[in-house]
Specification:
Blueprint (H helix, E strand, L loop, with lengths): L2 H12 L21 E6 L1 H4 L3 H12 L6 E6 L7 E2 L2 E2 H8 L7 E5 L8 H5 L1 H15 L4 E6 L17 H17 L3 E4 L1 H14 L1 H4 L11 H14 L5 E8 L4 E6 L2 E7 L5 E7 L11 H9 L7 E7 L5 E6 L2 E2 L4 E2 H6 L1 E2 L6 H28 L11 H22 L4 E9 L3
Parallel strand pairs: 1-2, 1-5, 5-6, 6-7, 8-12
Antiparallel strand pairs: 3-4, 8-9, 10-11, 11-17, 12-16, 13-14, 13-15, 13-17
Helix pairs in contact: 3-10, 3-13, 6-7, 8-11, 10-11, 13-14
Length: 422
């Protein structure tokens, strides 16, 4: 961690105050209001999945933050660059010119291919870091140990350079992180372990994790996103309330505002709650979620917890804005706390809307990056300075419109909890 970022974190922690009526989590999340985050990498970053899941989580959890995410992933890239230009052109145009405060880098899948590219990996990677440290000395840099080439769910392709070369890259990246005062997050070992788990639980389904051995499906990207977010100290609990079902009192609340709580002392509760969008965007029936569950036993980050004490024993139904949750809840589980972040609620729908806005923004960035990297191929009629300014102005307007859509303020919802009918 850079000294600059550490000082900011320390100052933020010093301002935290406790409250008996509010659950106050230590706000040690690495990102801050005003940050500009560049994701740099090859086609795995260009898939725009783990990056989009991170963006969605941050925008949903911190709707008032003015924070920008820029995906600068290009398929086929090595530490020397690729089809979007040599490495110095890529770094200048797609990273430094974006004025980032936070940069993540994941490279290696294409560098493993030949003895020559493997030998060039360490010096090429170091050149990238030298350029970034010289131009962006205060940027927080995060180096990611490259995701694996899958040899677990099925044998490697004949003649393919396998995962062992990517494993050899991991300590190189880790050492460079120490040398250049960067953070290090490994994808390789955790994902290899996850693939072993999935292959044991369901060999046929595990085949879908990385269908071509290299490019992960959404469930794997979701795990990758959470590896980054956990390393950045994203909150385990995005929102939560604890209510006394017998007395009708609010015992605790975190990033949710409860009002007008009433209880008849017999298990019937009514209240109004102001909530932001859910961070967890997939419901339990989604294929991405099913794959994630094969890969990991960890609960998702950003859970929405409901605790209710003092209820008579039995089953209960929770209703939000007039719509009952599909599953009933029992009094014992409500005392321990239930996570409703993946239930069909207005908060979940609002989180999905943030996700779709982030998806649209990523696609717009893809068009922009391709346009800039292939400027020499633009027809003469629009390659003039005026033409370029016109295109950039329209792209800027579209980006601003989409960024507004990612800002999802908290909304008020009506809650009721009642004994389930028998």
């Amino acid at each position: 961690m850079t000294l600059f970022r550490a000082l900011i974190d320390y100052a933020c922690l010093a301002l935290l105050v406790g409250s008996s009526a509010t659950l106050v989590a230590q706000e040690t999340f690495l990102l801050k209001d005003g940050d500009r985050v560049v994701f740099y990498g090859d086609s795995i970053t260009e898939q725009r999945l783990y990056t989009m899941y991170i963006e969605t989580a941050v925008h949903a959890r911190y709707p008032n933050w003015h924070i920008r995410f820029i995906n600068s992933g290009v398929g086929g890239d090595r530490v020397s660059g690729g089809q979007a230009g040599p490495i110095d052109a890529r770094i200048d145009r797609d990273v430094i010119a974006q004025s980032p405060t936070v940069i993540t880098i994941m490279l290696g899948m294409n560098d493993r291919s030949t003895p020559e590219t493997r030998a060039a990996y360490q010096p090429g990677y170091e050149h990238i870091l030298q350029r970034l440290r010289a131009s962006l000395p205060l940027a927080h840099i995060v180096l990611i140990g490259p995701s694996p080439y899958d040899e677990i769910t099925r044998p490697a392709r004949a003649g393919a350079a396998g995962n062992r070369y990517l494993v050899e890259f991991v300590p190189i990246v880790q050492a460079l992180a120490r040398k250049y005062q960067a953070d290090f997050i490994d994808f390789n070992a955790p994902l290899v372990a996850a693939l072993h788990r999935a292959s044991t639980l369901n060999p046929a389904a595990a085949l879908m994790a990385l269908p071509d051995h290299a490019h992960p499906e959404g469930g794997v990207h979701l795990l990758m996103a959470e590896l980054i977010l956990r390393a950045w100290h994203f909150p385990e609990i995005a929102a939560g309330v604890e209510l006394a079902g017998d007395s009708g009192k609010v015992l605790r609340q975190q990033d949710a505002k409860v009002s007008d709580l009433s209880s008849d002392g017999k298990g019937h509760l009514r209240w109004t709650e102001e909530d932001g969008p859910d961070v967890v965007i997939f419901d339990p029936d989604d294929g991405n979620e099913a794959l994630y569950r094969l890969l990991s036993a960890e609960p998702h980050l950003g859970r929405r917890m409901l605790h209710v004490t003092g209820l008579p024993r039995g089953e209960y139904r929770l209703t939000v804005d007039g719509k009952a949750l599909a599953a009933s809840l029992n009094a014992e589980s409500l005392v321990k706390g239930v996570d409703i972040s993946q239930e069909s609620t207005p908060m979940h729908a609002q989180g999905r809307a943030v996700y779709y806005a982030c998806q649209e923004l990523e696609l717009l960035q893809d068009v922009t990056l391709r346009m800039k990297s292939r400027a020499a191929e633009v027809p003469p009629a629009i390659s003039t300075v005026e033409g370029q300014k016109f295109m950039e102005a329209n792209l800027h307007l579209a980006e601003e419109r989409i960024l507004k859509a990612t800002t999802a303020p908290p909304q008020r919802h009506s809650f009721s909890l009642d004994p389930a009918a028998h």
